[in-house]
């Protein structure tokens, strides 16, 4: 009995498990190729610009884009997207890229709504300018409406720029999320050690 025990004890089995992770964080570098940090800084500037112009437009009695508080919620979306982009560039992960991608889509939809609303404001300003200046010759009204029209045009142009930037970032985020499926391969190595040889 003891001899059998020593014989069975002379052979020891050692199993080593090796986990290999493929497709982990490497595809997230596709998102970093879009330079989200620098685009995020630009989004912060656009958000601050939208906020400051919105404060000036709030004082106007004429109907403009601030009647629906468009500059304020759009500025909040720009600032949130910019902050998320900067943070994701520093600490990339699949969850952060997913949050960024969803915020980009929401901001693009909000930007499209703002563009439509500002086109309506352009038509109102043009009608006021045409009616007051050309029919009633009210000259003081022309500079006021011209200033409102130029302010809305600046906000319209910045919104178009932000939408283009967010579409490009969304493409990079989608490309990185599509190929970032984590796969774990477990390989077992069976090693037999003979104690007599030792």
Can you describe this structure?
- The chain is 69% helix and 12% strand.
- By secondary structure, it is an alpha+beta fold.
- The two termini are 23 Å apart.
- About 12% of the residues have low confidence.
- The protein has six helices and two strands.
- The protein has one domain.
- Helix 5 packs antiparallel against helix 6.
- It comes from Clupea harengus (Atlantic herring).
- Keywords: DNA-directed RNA polymerase, Membrane, Transcription, Transmembrane, Transmembrane helix.
Helices, strands, pairings?
Blueprint: H1 2-10, E1 11-22, H2 29-32, H3 36-58, H4 70-90, H5 94-135, H6 141-178, E2 183-194
Antiparallel strand pairs: 1-2
Keywords: DNA-directed RNA polymerase, Membrane, Transcription, Transmembrane, Transmembrane helix
Protein name: DNA-directed RNA polymerases I and III subunit RPAC2 isoform X1
Transmembrane segments: 38-58, 70-89, 101-125, 145-173
